[in-house]
Amino acid sequence: MNPSEQSKVLVSACLLGQRVRYDGRDSGHPDLLRRWQAEGRVVPLCPEVAGGLPTPRPPAEIPGGQGGPVLDGEAQVLTVLGEDVSEAFLKGAHQALALVRRHGIRVAVLKSGSPSCGNLLTYDGSFSGTKVPGEGVTAALLRREGVKVFSELQLVQAQACLEA
Ligand code: SF4
């Protein structure tokens, strides 16, 4: 199959070596993601930067750790300073959704634990390092759209889903 005809994957930009995290760092660059990039399959996005937030930026968490209620206007994303950054998170999530629709994407690999990208666990809003079962705002929106969302800890499963 021509690589350009292969299914594309939305990937958190910080997992591609881009220094877009809140602390100005990246989150590594796994070999499989490098390979997918070389094949032209990767659509990169940092939802928080796409939503207009600077890098570095104050860490943010969702009280309760659930992105779905943020999508529904029932919860907020707050920085450690107490600033409501929900609007930027929502804007970034909808940019991810637009990319998914434009490229016909059905698989995403997003950074674990993030209030935007986390797919299984997020921080609970106490800024104490406590994780709870939950998903970030972008992960929640993409899952509602039917995208299979994996993390960098589930690359084997993501690849299997992509090739199914
Ligand atoms: Fe950006 Fe998501 Fe990475 Fe956070 S986890 S830096 S929002 S790509």
3D architecture notes:
It is globular and about 45 Å long. With 164 residues, it is of the alpha/beta class. The protein has a four-stranded parallel beta sheet with strand order 2-1-5-8, with helices on both faces. Strands 3-4 form a two-stranded antiparallel sheet. A two-stranded antiparallel ribbon has the order 6-7. The two termini are 15 Å apart. Strand 1, helix 1 and strand 2 (42-45) form a beta-alpha-beta unit. The protein has one domain. It has helices spanning 31-38, 47-50, 67-71, 86-103, 137-144, 155-163, and strands at 9-12, 42-45, 60-61, 78-79, 107-109, 121-123, 131-133, 148-150. The protein binds iron/sulfur cluster.
| Element-level helix/strand string | EHEHEHEHEEEHEH
Q: Helical residue percent?
A: 25-40%
- Total individual domains: 1
Shape, principal axes of CA atoms: globular
Profile the largest sheet: 4 strands, parallel
- Kindly name the structural category: alpha/beta
Q: Which blocks of ≥5 consecutive residues have pLDDT under 50?
A: none
Overall mean confidence score, pLDDT: 96
Question: What ions, cofactors and ligands are bound?
Answer: iron/sulfur cluster
Number of strands: 8
